[in-house]
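Page 37, continued from 36.
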């Protein structure tokens, strides 16, 4: 009788543990190889909690193709989510519970990812001639970067402050404070004074996005690694001039200096609980089975063993794993430059240089741009990843 009861307890416990250890796999959505089509498939048919992630990715692909209207529409939808994220959210509440993974919460990204959504929308506003809205986006992006634990690296995007001040300067305001913040934060290149900025603005990007990964006993710690870049500098060439453009900001630096976040503490506490419940379960099961061998302590032993199995089941069901969903088509480097060109059609070439200052011919781009009549600026977006660069 004792052996049968012990076997029953162990069998039931094993079934529960196996059930907790296995998690249902999502069915993979079909892929066409076209990032726009695949993005829309994921937006419309994928998990709802991944919707903003796919909107980020797809909007950036539109921007790189020069389809600014579609890019702006998607970025507007993501920014509406970011600006309304402080309300009640069932997914976010579930992600903090012991038995739900962090990735069940709606994705909005880490501070550097949220900042980039505002940045891209800002340059689209600038292209539309709405400098006041562009400036508001750059300021909102810096606010996203203020979401760090130590504040040592908060609000330290050079380009965001620089563009904030330049927009003010263009609007006949005073951009000195923003310019000083930009130069104080500069680690790679020193931004030029606003008085020297021409009428054609080049927003540049190159290199690979930072990568997220999880470490720790239960993969509860979120970490970042540098995506890297073959190119470290650019040259813009026209018939009249050539200018070197270095990177103003490095997203690998921005991601790794974000500091802690509330969810890190939640996941740490989940990991502590999971480890403790598992240890308690091991001790209780072993002790209970030993006591169950003696007729006089059999009932107490079986009860202790059952408690231990429950503890192990609870431990197995606890999910402290960090969320590593990533806006993976972001660049590593952000740059900016401006030149003066007469209105009308102009030819521009872009060369990317490696760390030996050698031109990477496979990355060279040529474009024809239509320069606006003054006083409206002409905005040109140049990405390592676009096939047909042109004025937005």
């Amino acid at each position: 009788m004792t052996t049968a009861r012990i076997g029953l307890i162990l069998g039931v416990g094993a079934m529960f543990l196996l059930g907790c250890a296995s998690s249902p796999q999502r069915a993979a959505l079909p892929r066409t190889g076209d990032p726009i089509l695949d993005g829309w498939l994921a937006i419309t048919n994928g998990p709802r909690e991944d919707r903003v992630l796919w909107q980020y990715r797809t909007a950036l692909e539109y921007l790189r193709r020069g389809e600014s209207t579609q890019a702006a529409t998607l970025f507007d939808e993501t920014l509406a989510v970011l600006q309304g994220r402080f309300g009640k959210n069932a997914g976010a509440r579930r992600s903090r519970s012991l038995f739900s993974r962090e990735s069940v919460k709606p994705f909005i990204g880490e501070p550097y990812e949220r900042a980039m959504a505002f940045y891209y929308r800002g340059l689209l506003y600038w292209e539309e001639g709405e400098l006041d809205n562009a400036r508001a986006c750059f300021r909102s992006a810096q606010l996203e970067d203020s979401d760090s634990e130590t504040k040592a690296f908060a609000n330290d995007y050079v380009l965001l402050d620089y563009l904030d001040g330049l927009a003010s300067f263009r609007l006949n305001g005073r951009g000195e404070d923003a310019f000083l913040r930009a130069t104080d934060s500069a680690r790679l290149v020193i931004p030029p004074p606003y008085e020297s900025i021409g009428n054609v603005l080049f927003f540049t990007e190159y290199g690979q996005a930072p990568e997220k990964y999880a470490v720790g006993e239960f993969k509860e710690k979120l970490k970042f690694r540098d995506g890297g870049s073959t190119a470290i500098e650019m040259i813009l060439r026209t018939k009249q001039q050539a200018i070197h453009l270095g990177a103003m900001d490095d997203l690998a630096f921005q991601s790794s200096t974000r500091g802690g976040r509330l969810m890190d503490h939640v996941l740490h506490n989940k990991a502590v609980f999971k480890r403790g419940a598992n240890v308690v379960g091991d001790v209780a099961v072993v002790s209970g089975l030993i006591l169950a061998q003696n007729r006089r302590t059999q009932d107490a032993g079986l009860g202790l063993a059952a408690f231990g199995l429950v503890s192990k089941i609870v431990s197995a069901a606890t999910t402290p794993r960090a969320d590593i969903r990533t806006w993976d088509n972001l660049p590593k480097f952000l740059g900016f430059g401006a030149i003066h060109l007469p209105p009308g059609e102009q030819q521009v070439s872009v060369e990317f240089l490696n760390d030996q200052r050698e031109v990477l011919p496979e990355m060279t781009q040529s474009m024809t741009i239509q320069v606006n009549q003054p006083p409206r600026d002409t905005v040109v977006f140049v990405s390592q990843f676009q096939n047909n660069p042109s004025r937005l």
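Strands lie at 200-206, 211-215, 221-225, 233-237, 242-250, 333-339, 344-353, 365-371, 378-383. Flag for discussion at group meeting. The longest helix spans residues 262-292.
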